[in-house]
Amino acid sequence: MTAFLGNLGSPPLLFFFLGVMAVVVRSDLEIPAQVAKALSLYLLFAIGFKGGVALAESSVDAGMLLTLLAAVGLSACIPIYTFFLMKKKLSTADAAAIAATYGSVSAVTFVTAAGYLDIQGVAWSGYLVAAMALMESPAIIVGILLYNHFGKRGQASANLFSWKQLLNESLFNGSVFLILGSMLIGWITGSAGMSQVEPLVKDLFLGLLCLFLLDMGIVAARRFRDSRHAGDALAAGQPLRLMVVAALLMPLANAMLALVVAGFLGLGEGNALLFVVLVASGSYIAVPAAMRLALPEANPGTYLTMSLAITFPFNLLIGIPTYHAMIRWLL
Question: In this predicted structure, what is the pLDDT of residue 167?
C-alpha cells in the first residue's frame, strides 16, 4: 500500500494524468511532435548511459547472464501462448501482432519504473538495460513465424515482405540503437564519464520525464477516445470489451510468470521489479513499426490501442506499485 500511494503521488504519474485530463476537458494543451521526440531521445540516452555506468561498476557473473538469458527466453515464449489465446477470437494477423506486442517491451514503462526506484531509493543494476534492448526483437520474430505458419499471406504482402528489412527494423530501430549505444558509452567511460554529464543525466531526468509523460497522457487518452468513437478503428469481431479485458489481464499474467522466474534467479528488490515490469509491458513503438512492414493485414487500431491506451496507463498507475509490493512480500 505504501508503494502504491507513493507512486500515486509521484510527479511523473501526476503529469501523465494531467495529460489525460487535458483530453477529457478538450484543452488545446499539446507537446509539439519534435519536442516529444527530443524528450524520448533524451530519456533513452539517460537511462542507457546510467545503465552502462552501473554495468561498468559491476562484475559479469553467472547471475547476470542467466537473467539476460531468461529475459530473451520469456520474450520468445510469451508470444506463443498469447497468440493461441487471441486466435480464438481474433484474426490470425491480429493475434500475431498482439502476441509480438506483449512479448516485446515498453522502454517508457521501464524508464518510469527506473525513476520510481530512484525516488524510492532502491538500487538496481545496469544490465537490466541490456535485458530491455535484447527483449525487443525475439517477440517480433516469433510473432511473424506464428503468422507465417498458421495464417495465409496474400501474394501482394508476400512480395512486399523481407526478412532482411524486418531484422533491420527490429534490431536496429532508433530506440534500441540509441539505448544500446548510450549503454556502451557509459560502460566505456564509467564513473569518470558520469561526472562529466551528471547534471544532464541525473539532475534533469525527473523533470523531463514529467514532461514526456504529460505528452504520453495526451496521446494515450486520444488513442482510447478514438477507439471508442471510430467504428472503423476496430475490425469485425473485435469488440472494445475484449481488447480492454485482454490488455489488463495479459500484463498481470506475464508479471506473475516473471515473478516466479525472478524468485528462481534470486534477483534483488530493484532488479526483480525492473525484470517484472519488462515482462509485463507491451511495446507500442518497435512492434508497430515492424508490423507495418511485416504484417500490414493486422489492424493497428487493435494492438496499438491495447498496448498504448490500456496496458501502458495500467502499468504506470497500478502495475508498478503492485508488482513492487508483491516482490517485497514474496521475495
Answer: 64
Place of cell 505528452: 215
**pLDDT attached to residue 176:** 67
Which amino acid is present at 164? K
Helix/strand/coil (H, E, C) string of the chain?
CHHHHHHHCCHHHHHHHHHHHHHHCCCCCCCCHHHHHHHHHHHHHHHHHHHHHHHHCCCCCHHHHHHHHHHHHHHHHHHHHHHHHHCCCCCHHHHHHHHHHHHCCCHHHHHHHHHHHHHHCCCCCCHHHHHHHHCHHHHHHHHHHHHHHHCCCCHHHHHHCCHHHHHHHHHCCHHHHHHHHHHHHHHHHHHHHHHHHHHHHHHCHHHHHHHHHHHHHHHHHHHHHHHHHCHHHCCCCCCHHHHHHHHHHHHHHHHHHHHHHHHHHCCCHHHHHHHHHHHHCCCCCHHHHHHHHHCCCCCHHHHHHHHHHHHHHHHHHHHHHHHHHHHHHHC
pLDDT at 156: 45
**Band of pLDDT at residue 249, cut at 50, 70 and 90:** very high
State pTM to two decimals: 0.81
**Dihedral sign (CA 164, 178, 59, 276):** negative
